[in-house]
Amino acid sequence: MLNKDIEYNLIIDGDEARRAQEAANAAEHMTADQIDPTTFYCTQQYDRYSDENHEVWKTMYEQRWEVLEEQASNVFIAGLRAIGLVPNRVPLLNGTREMPDGTTLSGINEFLRPLTGWQSKPVPGYLPAKAFFACLSRREFPTTVTIRPKSKIEYLPEPDIFHDIFGHVPLHADPVFSDFLQTYGKAALQCDDPVHTERLARLFWFTVEFGLIKEDNRLKLYGSGIISSHGESHHALHAPEGKGEGKVERRPFDLDTVCDTPFEIDHYQPIYYVLDSFEQLRDAMTEYANRVLDGAKIKA
To answer: DSSP string covering 4-61, please?
Structure first.
């Protein structure tokens, strides 16, 4: 559900979007085998994006791209190029569309699907956890189709298409990361143990949202929360090491340590976990998923 205090362009008004959001909300009370993620999806009404919407995308894309080639993981940069994003227009998810200048805009799924089988699926707003996990378990990423108004270009308290596509989707073009994310989704969807549920939320936060990785003998970004934030990306990479105001602890990744670490949401992160490789993350998640799923089978 979108924040009613924010004046979005009417990309998602209508009964289809309302039904999709209601279906996603209802999934919280269903068992995993009862959930049908296709009911959460809506149509991306591409013609409804305004000139201001495209201008917001262009401004944010250019601001982040200016520094990301130096800051971001090589895997992220390769994925960004592979999915066919263009700097001057909000992304199209599916199909192709003729542009006013005579060029053809291709949907990102036309590039992404052949690489890893993942697809970005349009949703009207924030999905509750169980609905979100059901999508991930099918290699489908719920993608908010609204984009922030210009008045909120520096900070938005909820996902939009810039955060979801620019911040998340490039890594879905990588076979190793995409395997990790699907395994995560399957484990989280089947989990009904509140201890594991909390641990999985922490794992997502410190990896998918705010993860760092060692590449080329230095630290680089891969978490979407820092990839899409000009200020926090600098903080994560350059703040002095240590505890206390303005400082950062950059800890080596260990899955159980990550899962035992509470996170804070209302300011720059004081703790980041650093991967040696995405294979490390995939393999650790596979082992943890087996623990979670074995526990679920015992309870059943």
So the answer is: TTS---SSS-SHHHHHHHHHHHHGGGS-GGG--GGGG-----GGG--HHHHHHHHHHH
Per-residue pLDDT of the chain in tens (300 residues, 90 and over written 9): 555 555 656 777 788 988 999 999 999 999 999 999 999 999 999 999 999 999 999 999 998 898 998 999 999 999 999 999 999 999 999 999 998 888 999 999 999 999 999 999 999 888 999 999 999 999 999 999 999 888 888 777 778 899 999 999 999 999 999 999 999 999 999 998 889 999 999 999 999 999 999 999 999 999 998 998 888 899 999 999 999 988 999 999 999 999 999 998 878 899 999 999 999 999 999 999 998 887 655 443
The distance of Cα 39 from the centroid of its chain, to the nearest Å, equals 20
User: Active-site residues: which are they?
Assistant: 163, 168, 209, 228
Which domains are assigned to the chain? 1-173 (1.10.800.10), 193-300 (1.10.800.10)
Kindly report the pTM of this predicted structure. 0.92
Cα separation, 104 vs 115, in Å, equals 21
CB contact set of 279 (below 8 Å; sequence gap of 6+): 176
